[in-house]
Structures are given as structure tokens and as C-alpha cells.
Design brief:
- The complex is a heterodimer of chains A (511) and B (643).
- By secondary structure, chain A is mainly alpha-helical.
- Among the domains of chain A are: 39 residues; 216 residues, MetI-like (MetI-like fold, Orthogonal Bundle); 82 residues.
- In chain A, strand 1 and strand 2 form a beta hairpin.
- The radius of gyration of chain A is 30 Å and the shape is globular.
- The relative contact order of chain A is 0.13.
- Chain B has 643 residues and is mainly alpha-helical.
- Among the domains of chain B are: 106 residues, no CATH class; 112 residues, no CATH class; 217 residues, Orthogonal Bundle (MetI-like fold).
- Helix content of chain B is 71%, strand content 4%.
- Chain B has a two-stranded antiparallel sheet with strand order 1-4.
- Chain B is globular and about 95 Å long.
- The two termini of chain B are 40 Å apart.
- The chains are: A mainly alpha (511), B mainly alpha (643).
């Protein structure tokens, strides 16, 4: 091959194709076009919505949150809230309580049923599979409504009625059981418990290292529990010592309240730019050759430019396009710390946790449940039992599949090295099964939380039902729906972060 | 029971026989005598014995409670029997009812053909299980007769006789004598089982299999025949308001249609099998699948809705437009599939895309008005032009492409015209069918529309293009993070606020839209699981043989990944089907709303809810359970995780 041939070859290789045939350019063109299409469509829809709403005489904005609400809620921490914002808060608390209570009971029930499906007893096996197959093949909404209707047609409330008077009452008004509730001084006590748990964790780590080093039984988990319990017991009496924590929160609240809007806007812009700069720095560092020179392909250049442009746009938008954001951040931050300051405040010296038994009162002609017990109204009972049974059926399947997924050889090997049956379960089978169970289990927790929104069908005041009441009165559908979505997204995110944390810890460390 | 004779079936379908043999049979288990079985499974340890006793009692008590509840004289099952039509089709006009039968018939024919054409490897139920099942069913019926409390005595007017302490009941002995019909049924079932057992004398013949298709046809035949004998329900007249009227029974008027439907199913099944034996299966399967795809649209928009075409407009506007786009598009495609066109083709395609996009922008500013379907047609032309170079080839290849294009245009303009025409069927609600019908319609449309969307989302999420990935990921995660009900409320209530003047979207359409987006996000995650299971070597191999990215996706990646994700996809389909019950919350008259709100508002059945709700539970359960069983079998057939 002659020199000129080589030169032309090199020239053709290095010559770039025209722009309209360059794959990288085209790809980015298509992506930016798609993105601008979406942004344009959203912009179009939002302007339409604004003009349509203006025609109907409905102003947009979140000021309705502080306006009074015309109707009562069916149940919750405050059945006659002053404002719509307070009503939504009550709905959120109802949703959260329903979800947490549901998750705990559904897990227990699901594990029992799932293990029951693998039982060697024919009747237990059959009952468990009938339970699962019946519940998971009927829509949850139908189940909830059916439970609601069945509870509503039960006998009326009477004095001294119930399967176990004073402990458990069941009637057309729902179910009433003993109530355990947090009382004055709970939050200070929580601080003591948290300190105990932190110390206990240190002790546990030390003891398990000792166990690894020497092989002696050091009972790490038991010592963790013991330390925490000791702190909790002592804290029961000494918790008023921590009254000063409230003042710290109060100070934070006034500090945030003193910020000006400009400061927050500048901080937000700086944060956006900072994130972009950090991302680009890391990106460049990853693409550095051993000699220290950054080697970037065209595609990488596009990425860097795109990240920079987006950051600048966000920084401008925060300052010009959305001035209300900063005042909202200031207000909600101040409110949050004020609430915390109140909860942790001085002068709350009572007992942290209290309990009461249910009672039945007769103020007029008709007896009804008194305020002492934990009263599951028809709606609450229907949603609660509905989601618990439905989710338990799915959890049972997950648990069963998890246990079945542990290879038989593991059991046989454990038996061969002479482990006792319980040790084998605890050390060999359950850890491996749990690894398979955890991710889908987290999904079920998410589903349970989302499914509590079906309460809207039977009028139990969870977040969605309260929201519906509010937009029926004020017409603020867009705002209410965005509050719903934000709330549920936060819940989902929280649950998946927690599940992921355990998931990462349980993962097999691969080489 | 002529259909169930396994010998005939084995003789009739040698193909299925060979397929059965190909499946490796599990080793035969030696059968344990009943006494040994009871000892092993119920009383193996003291703890197990205690469990058996406790849970056995629990089962008996629960069964007794359920029986007493279901057969109590206070239950008003008439609320369900009278309103069967309301529950299944809402207020579809009586004189147009033949349209519903046409729909059912079409589905029956398609289902029959599909099942007949499919080379089944499912073995069905062994004679042994069938006969012991029949005997056990007889025993359960007898047990139920004994368990249920004696019936209440009634007065001459049919009301329950009471005294101070409650309802007056007959004695136990009288009750047992009164229930002679149930005893007879139990005896018949047990005898049938025993006859089957002894007819197939030895163990080997008892393990002959009755294919599940034949079993299904047999059971449905019995159900259909029973409509000629037993009145399953009454009529509900919907004269402005819902009034229940006893008298003519639903069974009396539907026995003939149901018989026809059953015969259609049987004939289609036989025809499908004949076609498969003749070796014509693969050709027909494609046509059949296209029919399945088209059937929801055609059945809902054409058959049920019966559009009232304005012929003047059709002749002057719609047909010319359709012809124009078919011809113009064909000309463009002919030009672009020329192998010599090269770079120019891409430029033309890009310009067309720009024009199509500009039509929408112009609509936003209100510059020049045009029909929506014209804008869509322009978009279709541009998309076809973009893909055209993939089909470049000789004359016959290009002509085939043009034919496909003409058919697509014809179908598109036909459906658009139909959708724009008013309906001639008068119903009180905007959905043409209510009750269980609307559930099926929404579920069918949702599945059909969400599948392609879900696949696209999954591809975008796994692609190397960062903006597409981020957009798809955020869409999927946002939708998966919020409850369905909020999505549905968004689409049914808020969407109309977002639309420009003069554009409106019906509740049903927006509900389908909401369901589709919701279901697509979940489908996308299932498909993504499948996409991730594809080995790197597949990509490298397809690069090595020089496939383009599009070809690689269509011919290599998707077929493999979709096969892996079939079980979760079926699971998602079941979930979507169950979620359709939320239609009741957003104001559509689905079967749940019928049972929970409409029937309890009738004067005859004021406040009667539990019966209807139990019925709804039953309907949903039958559908969802059979689907999940089918998917489990499918999973085994596909051998996912075993290859």
C-alpha cells in the first residue's frame, strides 16, 4: 500500500459524516425534540387549564388550605377541623395509621398462612390455599364494600354487649378494642430510647466481633435489646430532663422564619448549579484516561452540555418563574420546626404511654361507643380488614415461594453437619428465604399503602376522601390531586428506601 | 356425558396424543390406602392431630354459617335473579339485544377457533381425579344438607313465621325429609363418580386423561341445557327507572341464544382442530390473532354502538379524504422505497414529519383549522415515510407495502368516521353497555392499548439515550407510586379542564386512558425484567450479522424477552381486570355499582346489598381464578426457568 493510499484511507476514516447523518447528533436531536414536545404539551395543557379555570371563576393556588372547611370528617385525630389544610392533615394521619397498622398485621397473618400452605397437615394446607385463592381473586374494592355492608347489618350497640364486654365489642357501629396511646412526654422519652438504642448498637457490634474472634456465645442481639430496654425503663422517669430539646427546635423555627425570600432563591439556584457542577466533575473523573487526560466522545460532550443547560434553566426558573416556591419553603419549614418544638417542649412531664379499655355510653336514647377505647368505625374496620386480608393473601404466596426457593441441599447439608432443627431454620433456611421474600414484600407494603385510598368508596376519611370533600366544595381539583400525588410519592419513596436498605444489607456479597 | 368419554377423544386427535407423549410424565406414585393417607396427613403427630381437630371444627362451623346465611329465608336472592340483565348489560335496549348476542357469538367463534388451532400439551384431568372429585362433591352436598339448620316455616303469604323467641323452624327430621331434592343430587353425583370409577376398572385405565377442553364443553353443555328446564332469573324492565317485574324469566328468553352460542363454540372448536390436522394452522393463527386485536374495536364501535352515518358527509368528505391520503401516501412511499433515492429520501421524510408536527403547533395558535383525523393522517404518512427505507426492494415488495398502507388508511378512516358519528342506540348512560359488560370493555381496551405502550416504555427505560431513559423512568415511577384511584380521578375530572375549547372527552374514554397509562407503567416493569434476562451474546451476535438497532429489537430482543415475561404479564392482566371494579367510584355503572347502589334503590329490593355483592364476588372470582390457573399452566408449558 502506497503512502498516498494510506493518507486517503486515514482521511476517509477521520472525516466526519455530515451532521444530518451523524448518529450521535441525530440521537440527541430526537431526544431533545421529544423532550420539547413533552414540555410543549404540558405548557399547552397548563395554559388551557388556567384559562378554563379563569372562565369558571376559580382561582388557582393553595390559599384554600387556610380557609375554613364546611363539613365534619367521619373519624380521625380531629373530626371537626378548622381549616382545609388541617382536614388534609387529619386525612394523612388516618392513611398513615391505617397503613402502618395494616402492614404489621398483614405481615403476621401472611407469614402464618404462607407457612400453613407448606404444612404437612392436609386440613391446614387446604384452609390456607382456600384463604389465598379466595381473597386474591376478588377485587379489593368489592371486598371492602362487602365487609362494610356486613358490619352495618350487625346488631345495634347495647350496654354490656360484645363478645367480651370491656375488652372487645362488635356491633353495627364497628369494633371497639382497648387503646394504647402516646401521652405527654412521649417525645422526650423517645430521645432517651434513641440514645439507648445507639449505645445498644455499639455493644452489639462489639459483642458480635468478639463472637467472630473467639467463637464464644456472646448474645449480641439479646444485649442490644437489654441495653435499649434498660434505657427505656430509666427514661420512663427521667425523660423531663430533655425538655430543652424543644427550645432547640423553636430556635431553628425562628431562624428559618428570619430568612428572606431572596436568600432562599439564591440558595436554591446555587444548589442547582452545584449539583450540576459536581455531576460534571464526577463524570469527567470517570472518563479520565490513565494519563490524566479526559477522553470524551461526542455523546459524552452532549451529556455534559445538557446537564449544564438544564442546571442553568432550573436556576433561572426558580428565581423568575416560580417566586412562590421560596416563601412556601420558608413557611413550611418554620411550621414544621414549630410543631416539633411544641411536641418536644418543656413542661411535658407526664407518663409517655397510656392505655384505656373500651366503654359504651348512653348519652341519649341510643348507646354508643365511648371515647376511651380504640373504636374502629364501620368504614375504618372495612378498609382495615379489607386491605389486611387482601395483602395477607399476597404475602402468603410470597412467603411460600421464598421458603420453597431455598434448595433442598441446604437443608440436607445443615442436617449433615448436625444442626438442630431450630438452628437450621434460624441460621440456614430463613436468611436465604428472606433474601427472596424481601423485595416483593416491600412491593406489597407499597400496594397496601396505596390501597387504603379505596376508603373513598365507603366514606372513611383518609387523605383521598378528605381531598374529594374539599374539591367538591372549592373546585380546587388540580391542587388537591397534586397534594395526593406528592403524599403518596413520599410514602412510596420512604418504603422503598427502607426496603432497599435491608435489601442491600442482605445481599450476597459477590466477588 | 358423551363428551367426556376419553376413548373417543384419544381416537379423534392423534396429534394431541403425540404431544402428550412428548411431555415427560412424572414417575407413577404408588397409591396409598385411605387409612394410611389419613394417618400420614392428618394425625401424624399429637400436634398435628390437635391442629386437625381444631381446624376441622372451624371449617365445619364456617361452612354451617355460610350455608345458613346463603340459604336463609331472609335472603332476597330474587334481587339478583330479577336483575341479571341489569347486572350484566345495564340498560341496553331490549329490541337491540341481538347486538349483544352477536358480540358473544363472535367471541365464542374466535375462542373456539383459537383453542382448536392451538397444539395443546395440557393433559387435563385424569378419570381417577374426575370420578373421585364427583364422589367428593356428592359427599360435600350431603354434608351441607345435614349441616344447614332446619328451614324456617312460612305463612301462607310467604313471610317467615315468628314467635317471641325468634323464627319458628321445622324439626331436624322434617328438614332432612324436605331436602329430598338435595339428597337426590348428592346421590346422583356420587353414583356418577362411582360409575366412572368402576367402568374404568384397573389403575392404568383410570389414569387416562380427559382433556380440559372436552371437560369444559361438557360442563357448559349441562349449564346451557339446564336453562331449558330451570328458570335461572326474571326480567327487570328499565322503563325510565328500574322496576323489577316477576313473570317472564331470563332463562326462558335466553335459552335459545345460549344454545346457539354453545353450538357456535363447538363448531368453531371442531373446525379449528380440523384445520390444524390439515396442516393449515400457522396461516390461520396470524389471521385469527388479527381478528382478536380488531374484535374489541369492531364489536364496541360498530356492533354495540351502531353508528348512524351521515351519508352526504361520508360521500362528500370522508371517502374522498380517505382516498386522497391512501393515494398520496402510496405515491410518497413508492418514491421513498426506490433504492436509488438515497439521502433525498431521508430529507423528504424529515420534511413530512416537520409538516405533521407543524399541523399541531398551528392548531395551538389557531392558524388554520383542519379535521383532527387529517392531522393524524399526516402524522401517519410521515411515520411511514421515516420507516420506508427499511422496505426498499424490488417491485413486488414495494407493491406489497403499498397494499398494507392502503388497508391501514382505509381502516383508520373507517374507524375515525364511525367514531365521529352519533350512535343510534339509545341508552341512558354514555357507555353503551353497563354492568359486567363495561368491565369487559374497559379491561379489553386497557390491555390492548397498554401493551404496546408498556413495551415502548420498557425499551426507553433500558435504552442508552439518557433523556428518553429519564423521561420513561420518571413516568413509570410516578405512576407506580400513586394509587390508581387518584390517576382515575385525575383523568375523569381534571382532564376536561386541560383540554381546549370544544374538545371533550367522555368519562369512559378518560377512564380507559387512565387505566391504560397506569397499567402500562406496571407492564413496562414486567417487560423490563424480560429485557434484562437477555444475554449480552445475543446483542453481539445481532451486531455481527449486521442488523440495525430496530431490526435487533424487533427480531431478536423482544421475542425472547416477551416469552420470559409472559407469566407476569398475565398476572398484570388479571390485576387490571380486578381493578376495573374502581369504575364504580368514578361514576360509571359497572357491575359493582349495580349491586351496591342501583339494585338497593329499587322499590322491591330496598337496601338489599349483601346478595348482590356476593354475586359480584362470585363473578369476579370465577373469571380471575380461571385466568390465574390458566397462567400457571402456561408457565409450566413455556418451561420458564428450565431452558
Amino acid at each position: 500500500m502506497s503512502n498516498t493510499d494510506k493518507a486517503t484511507l486515514a482521511a476517509t476514516q477521520s472525516r466526519r459524516p455530515p451532521l444530518y447523518r451523524d448518529a450521535t447528533v441525530l440521537k440527541w436531536l430526537a431526544q431533545v425534540a421529544a423532550l420539547s414536545l413533552v414540555v410543549f404539551a404540558l405548557y399547552f395543557l397548563v395554559t388551557q387549564a388556567q384559562s378554563n379555570l379563569a372562565k369558571k371563576g376559580i382561582a388557582t393556588g393553595f390559599d384554600f388550605l387556610s380557609a375554613p372547611l364546611g363539613s365534619d370528617l367521619s373519624s380521625g385525630i380531629d373530626t371537626d377541623p378548622d381549616t382545609s389544610g388541617r382536614a388534609l392533615w387529619v386525612g394523612m394521619v388516618n392513611t398513615i395509621r391505617l397503613s402502618i397498622g395494616g402492614i404489621i398485621v398483614a405481615t403476621v397473618l401472611g407469614v402464618v398462612v404462607g407457612v400453613g400452605r407448606l404444612s404437612s397437615n392436609w386440613i391446614v394446607k387446604r384452609i390456607s390455599s382456600v384463604f389465598v385463592e379466595t381473597l386474591r381473586n376478588i377485587p379489593l374494592l368489592v371486598q371492602i364494600i362487602l365487609i362494610f355492608v356486613v358490619i352495618s347489618t350487625l346488631p345495634r350497640v347495647e350496654i354490656n354487649q360484645g363478645p367480651i364486654p370491656g375488652w372487645l365489642h362488635i356491633s353495627n357501629k364497628g369494633v371497639s378494642v382497648p387503646r394504647v396511646f402516646i401521652s405527654d412526654g412521649f417525645y422526650q422519652w423517645l430521645i432517651v430510647v434513641a440514645i439507648g438504642a445507639a449505645l445498644g448498637w455499639l455493644v452489639m457490634r462489639r459483642r458480635s466481633r468478639l463472637h467472630d474472634a473467639t467463637g464464644r456465645d456472646t448474645y449480641p442481639v439479646a444485649s442490644f435489646v437489654a441495653v435499649t430496654a434498660a434505657f427505656a425503663a430509666v427514661g420512663w422517669f427521667v425523660h423531663p430532663v430533655f425538655g430543652w430539646v424543644g427550645n432547640v427546635f423553636d430556635g431553628l423555627a425562628s431562624g428559618i422564619g428570619a430568612l428572606t425570600e431572596q436568600t432562599v432563591q439564591i440558595l436554591l439556584s446555587v444548589a442547582a448549579l452545584l449539583v450540576a457542577v459536581l455531576w460534571i466533575r464526577r463524570f469527567l473523573a470517570q472518563h479520565r484516561s490513565p494519563a490524566g487526560r479526559a477522553k470524551l466522545s461526542d455523546d459524552d460532550w452532549f451529556r455534559v452540555i445538557f446537564a449544564g443547560v438544564v442546571a442553568v434553566l432550573v436556576a433561572i426558573f426558580v428565581n423568575i418563574g416560580w417566586p412562590g416556591l421560596s416563601s412556601w419553603i420558608i413557611n413550611s419549614g418554620r411550621d414544621l420546626f414549630e410543631v416539633l418544638g411544641d411536641k418536644f417542649g418543656d413542661g411535658r412531664t407526664g407518663q409517655p404511654i397510656d392505655a384505656k379499655r373500651p366503654d359504651i355510653e348512653q348519652p341519649g336514647n341510643f348507646p354508643n361507643y365511648g371515647p376511651a377505647g380504640l373504636n374502629l368505625t364501620q368504614g375504618l374496620a372495612a378498609v382495615y380488614f379489607g386491605v389486611v386480608f387482601y395483602t395477607a393473601a399476597f404475602i402468603a404466596e410470597i412467603v411460600r415461594a421464598g421458603i420453597l426457593s431455598v434448595p433442598k441441599g441446604q437443608t440436607e447439608a445443615a442436617q449433615a453437619v448436625g444442626l438442630r432443627r431450630l438452628t437450621m431454620l434460624r441460621r440456614v433456611i430463613l436468611p436465604q428465604a428472606f433474601r427472596v421474600i424481601l423485595p416483593p414484600l416491600g412491593n406489597q407494603y407499597l400496594n397496601l399503602t396505596k390501597n387504603t385510598s379505596l376508603a373513598i368508596a365507603i366514606g372513611y376519611s383518609d387523605l383521598v376522601q378528605v381531598g374529594e370533600t374539599i374539591y367538591n366544595q372549592t373546585g380546587k381539583t388540580v391542587e388537591v390531586v397534586s397534594i395526593w400525588m406528592l403524599f403518596y410519592l413520599t410514602c412510596s419513596l420512604t418504603i422503598s428506601v427502607v426496603v432497599n436498605f435491608f435489601n442491600v444489607r442482605l445481599k450476597i456479597v459477590e466477588r | 356425558m358423551a363428551e367426556m368419554r376419553p376413548v373417543d377423544i384419544a381416537a379423534a386427535s392423534p396429534a394431541s396424543q403425540t404431544a402428550e407423549e412428548a411431555v415427560s410424565l412424572p414417575p407413577e406414585q404408588p397409591s396409598t390406602p385411605p387409612r394410611e393417607w389419613i394417618r400420614q396427613n392428618l394425625f401424624s403427630t399429637p400436634f398435628n392431630s390437635a391442629l386437625t381437630v381444631v381446624f376441622g371444627l372451624l371449617v365445619l362451623l364456617t361452612a354451617r354459617g355460610l350455608l345458613n346465611f346463603t340459604f336463609s329465608e331472609e335472603r332476597e336472592w330474587d334481587a339478583v335473579r330479577t336483575n341479571l340483565r341489569l347486572l350484566f348489560t345495564h340498560a341496553y335496549p331490549e329490541e337491540q339485544y341481538v347486538r349483544i348476542w352477536v358480540c358473544v357469538g363472535t367471541i365464542a367463534v374466535l375462542a373456539g377457533l383459537s383453542v382448536g388451532l392451538a397444539a395443546t400439551t395440557a393433559r387435563g384431568v385424569s378419570v381417577k381425579r374426575l370420578s373421585s372429585g364427583l364422589m367428593a362433591l356428592g359427599a360435600v352436598v350431603a354434608l351441607g344438607v345435614v349441616l344447614r339448620e332446619p328451614s324456617a316455616l312460612s305463612n301462607a303469604d310467604g313471610s317467615v313465621r315468628r314467635n317471641d323467641s325468634g323464627v319458628i323452624r321445622e324439626s331436624f327430621a322434617e328438614a332432612m325429609v324436605d331436602r329430598w331434592g338435595w339428597w337426590l343430587a348428592a346421590a346422583l353425583l356420587a353414583t356418577a363418580g362411582a360409575a366412572l370409577w368402576f367402568r374404568f376398572g384397573d389403575e392404568r385405565r383410570r389414569s387416562t386423561f380427559v382433556p380440559s377442553v372436552e371437560l369444559f364443553m361438557g360442563v357448559t353443555a349441562i349449564v346451557v341445557l339446564s336453562a331449558w328446564v330451570y328458570p335461572w332469573g326474571h326480567y327487570a324492565f328499565t322503563d325510565g327507572e328500574f322496576i323489577a317485574e316477576p313473570g317472564r324469566t331470563v332463562a326462558m328468553s335466553t335459552k335459545l341464544p345460549w344454545t346457539v352460542m354453545w353450538l357456535l363454540l363447538a363448531v368453531a372448536l371442531a373446525a379449528g382442530r380440523r384445520l390444524r390436522q390439515a396442516g393449515a394452522g400457522s396461516n390461520f393463527t396470524l389471521a385469527l390473532n388479527l381478528c382478536w386485536l380488531a374484535c374489541p374495536f369492531v364489536l364496541y364501535w360498530v356492533v354495540l354502538r351502531d353508528p348512524d352515518l351521515d351519508w352526504d358527509r361520508v360521500l362528500s368528505v370522508d371517502i374522498p379524504l380517505g382516498v386522497l391520503f391512501a393515494a398520496g401516501g402510496a405515491a410518497v412511499l413508492w418514491l421513498l422505497t426506490d433504492q436509488r433515492i438515497g439521502e433525498l429520501g431521508r430529507i423528504i421524510a424529515a420534511l413530512l414529519l416537520g409538516l405533521a408536527a407543524f399541523n399541531w403547533v398551528a392548531a395551538f395558535w389557531g392558524w388554520y383549522p383542519m379535521l383532527q383525523k387529517v392531522r393524524l393522517s399526516f402524522l401517519l404518512v410521515a411515520l411511514a415515510a421515516l420507516l420506508a427505507h427499511n422496505f426498499a426492494g424490488d417491485r413486488s415488495k414495494r407493491l406489497r407495502l403499498l397494499t398494507v398502507w392502503a388497508v391501514v388508511m382505509a381502516v383508520f378512516h373507517y374507524m375515525a368516521t364511525l367514531m365521529n358519528s352519533p350512535s343510534s342506540v339509545e341508552t341512558p348512560t354514555e357507555a353503551f353497555v353497563g354492568g359486567f359488560g363495561v368491565t369487559l370493555v374497559v379491561a379489553a381496551f386497557t390491555l390492548l392499548l397498554s401493551f404496546p405502550l408498556g413495551v415502548m416504555l420498557a425499551l426507553a427505560r433500558t435504552s442508552k439515550l439518557p433523556i428518553f431513559r429519564v423521561m420513561s423512568t420518571s413516568f413509570i415511577e410516578v405512576i407506580r407510586g400513586v394509587p390508581l384511584i387518584t390517576v382515575l380521578i385525575f383523568f375523569t375530572i381534571i382532564l376536561n379542564l386541560f383540554l381546549p375549547d370544544g374538545m371533550e372527552i367522555s368519562v369512559l374514554a378518560s377512564a380507559v386512558l387512565g387505566y391504560t397509562l397506569f397499567s402500562a407503567a406496571y407492564l413496562a416493569e414486567n417487560v423490563r425484567g424480560g429485557l434484562q434476562s437477555i444475554r449480552r451474546g445475543q446483542f453481539e451476535a445481532s451486531d455481527a450479522v449486521g442488523l440495525t438497532a430496530l431490526q435487533r429489537t424487533i427480531f431478536i430482543v423482544l421475542p425472547q424477552s416477551l416469552r420470559v415475561s409472559i407469566p407476569p404479564l398475565v398476572g398484570q392482566a388479571i390485576a387490571t381486570f380486578k381493578e376495573t371494579s374502581l369504575l364504580a367510584v368514578i361514576g360509571l355503572f359497572d357491575v359493582l355499582r349495580m349491586a351496591n347502589n342501583v339494585i338497593p334503590a329499587q322499590t322491591e329490593f330496598l337496601g338489599v346489598k349483601r346478595e348482590g355483592l356476593l354475586f359480584v364476588c362470585g363473578v369476579y372470582w370465577i373469571f380471575a381464578y380461571s385466568m390465574s390457573k390458566r397462567s400457571q399452566r402456561l408457565e409450566k408449558q413455556l418451561g420458564v426457568g428450565e431452558r
